[in-house]
Amino acid sequence: MFHLLESFGSILVYALLISAAPTATMVLTNSTFLSSGEYSAAPFKPDSSNILVAEIWTQPNMRGVTGLINVNVLPTTCLTLNAPFTDNVMSIRVFSGFDCLFYINAQCQGPTFMVVSNSVVSDLTSTSFQGTIVSFSCFID
């Protein structure tokens, strides 16, 4: 379930808490687009218990709904994406200092797609991972 965190004019910021195990959680912060289609990022300040490792989008070229992936344990256990991101990730950015493995099946099973530290995959359209990512794990590079 999404919970509204803040509203900045026409930008709404939601959070979705996903638990994978008692020792690992992921917070996805979801922002909407302005009516013009231009993205305006709301400020996000993770507290000391959360580490920002990656960002995902539902459309190519870093458009659509975006989710900031914050974890409180590295390496993470396997984490599963919820709507609107399950089978709907089309762009990925992994921040400096981390690597993430993305899987097409739940429980980090099946083919793997790795995004390394400080990298952007702007369009998964031409890959076999187009709209198929269900779970992931991240670790320090």
Secondary structure layout plus pairing:
Layout: E1 3-8, E2 11-21, E3 24-31, E4 51-59, E5 63-71, E6 79-80, E7 91-94, E8 98-105, E9 109-115, E10 119-121, E11 135-140
Antiparallel strand pairs: 1-2, 2-3, 3-5, 4-5, 4-7, 6-11, 7-10, 8-9, 8-11
Can you give keywords for this protein?
disordered N terminus; mainly beta; seven-stranded antiparallel sheet; 141 residues; Gamma-B Crystallin, domain 1; 0% helix; single chain; four-stranded antiparallel sheet
Based on DSSP secondary structure assignment, what is the total number of beta strands? 11
Reported by name, the CATH topology is Gamma-B Crystallin, domain 1
> Strands of the biggest beta sheet: in what spatial order?
1-2-3-5-4-7-10
Structural classification: mainly beta
Walk me through the structure.
The protein is an all-beta fold. The chain has a single domain (3-140), classed as Gamma-B Crystallin, domain 1, CATH 2.60.20.10. Helices cover 0% and strands 52% of the residues. It is built from no helices and eleven strands. The protein has strands at residues 3-8, 11-21, 24-31, 51-59, 63-71, 79-80, 91-94, 98-105, 109-115, 119-121, 135-140. The chain has a seven-stranded antiparallel beta sheet, with no helix packed on it. A four-stranded antiparallel beta sheet has the order 6-11-8-9, with no helix packed on it. Strand 2 (11-21) and strand 3 form a beta hairpin. The radius of gyration is 14 Å and the shape is globular. Mean pLDDT is 74; it is low at 1-47.
